[in-house]
Amino acid sequence: MLDLAIIGGGPAGLTAGLYATRGGLENVTMFEMGLPGGQITGSSEVENYPGQKNVVTGMELMEDWPVQAMKFGLKHEMNQVLNVSKDNNIFIIQTADGHKQEAKAVLLATGSVPRRAGFKGENEFFGRGISTCATCDGFFYKGKEVVLIGGGDSALEEAVYLAKICSKVYLVHRRDSYKAAPSTIAHMKACENIEEVTNVDVEEVYGDNSGVTGLKVKSKIDDTIRDIKVPGVFVFVGRNVLNEPFKKEDGTFLCDTNEQGEMIVDLKMRTNIPGVYAAGDVRIDAAKQVVCAAADGATAAVDIIEYLG
Ligand code: NAP
């Protein structure tokens, strides 16, 4: 019987693991399918984590987090959690390998995944010229022109990163103003090889057997079509929460959620079900920052220790 099952190994899950084990819980397992670290490990530049005065990659930022948590006894199980169900006051964790484990408390810290924009050709060319990770795939377009779609912090930060590798970046956005932070907009505007293509809808991404060869956008102002010939398209249009482990067969969830499927929690990261917690991007009103996810994890762990008494 686990004291605590943590689902997800990003900043929220790792910090919860650190606080829970260091706070005295003996049997804490963090279920993470891949390497711990979370979505931030795909970021090329992090400059707003407190205490880090130098710009670091997401990978560098997260490198020591699992090491530190495991020093206090956190166990990492490289496994996918398919479902969590409740049996009286005990939770049943069902994993992809067919095993079931019991836990006295459970924390959902699964975060989110990149959202698809929904244009023609997106699914067909995904992984064949369409990418959602500039640090992973930017290198393939060294010295070439690429398109990047989106207008938030992720889009603009990654446009700046790609502008250092690629000969030119077309920043394609559906409006003419951006959601990103003013300093990030200023960084983007200072890059001479970023061309802003705003107030457009993506009509389609097209290509051939070897992958993407270009993209067509339609002006929202005069309906004109512009054809941009590029071998690579990066999509940064937001993220969807990973709530599958809490989903029941009838489509409802183990605990209350909002319309976006985000877990409703209070200030202690408690859901409406005693013993069930959610932290990081998967919860309502998440600021979607590493430091906030980490703080959520710590907050949840402190309350879980009290709950387990
Ligand atoms: P986001 O802020 O939700 O921005 C998504 C962007 O994609 C928006 O500009 C949106 O356009 C556009 N978009 C959405 N759906 C689209 C579609 N179907 N087709 C075309 N464009 C579409 O997402 P994000 O950039 O991934 O950021 C998520 C959160 O993480 C935010 O809270 C952000 O501040 C945070 N974040 C922070 C940092 C940092 O502080 N360093 C870095 C990355 C992310 P509209 O503008 O028209 O809605």
| SS-based class | alpha/beta
Q: Average the pLDDT over all residues and give the rounded result.
A: 96
**Rg, Å, rounded:** 21 Å
- Please report the first level of CATH classification, the CATH class of the largest domain: Alpha Beta
Proportion of beta-strand residues? 25-35%
Low-confidence stretches: none
Say which molecules are bound, naming each kind only once: NADP nicotinamide-adenine-dinucleotide phosphate
Based on the coordinates given, report the CATH architecture of the largest domain.
Answer: 3-Layer(bba) Sandwich
Number of domains: 2
**Annotated CATH homologous superfamily of the largest domain:** FAD/NAD(P)-binding domain
Q: What characteristic shape results from the CA principal axes?
A: elongated
Kindly report the CATH topology of the largest domain.
FAD/NAD(P)-binding domain
Q: Determine the N-to-C terminus distance.
A: 16 Å
Q: Please provide the count of β strands.
A: 17
Query: What is the element string, with H for helices and E for strands?
Result: EHEHHEEEEEHEHEHEHEEEEEEEH
Topology:
Elements: E1 2-7, H1 11-22, E2 28-31, H2 58-62, H3 65-71, E3 75-77, E4 81-87, E5 90-95, E6 100-108, E7 112-114, H4 122-125, E8 130-131, H5 134-137, E9 145-149, H6 153-165, E10 168-172, H7 182-189, E11 194-197, E12 200-208, E13 211-219, E14 225-228, E15 232-235, E16 239-241, E17 276-278, H8 290-308
Parallel strand pairs: 1-2, 1-6, 2-3, 6-17, 8-15, 9-10, 9-15, 10-11
Antiparallel strand pairs: 4-5, 5-6, 7-16, 12-13, 13-14
Helix pairs in contact: 1-3, 1-8, 6-7
The structure holds NADP nicotinamide-adenine-dinucleotide phosphate.
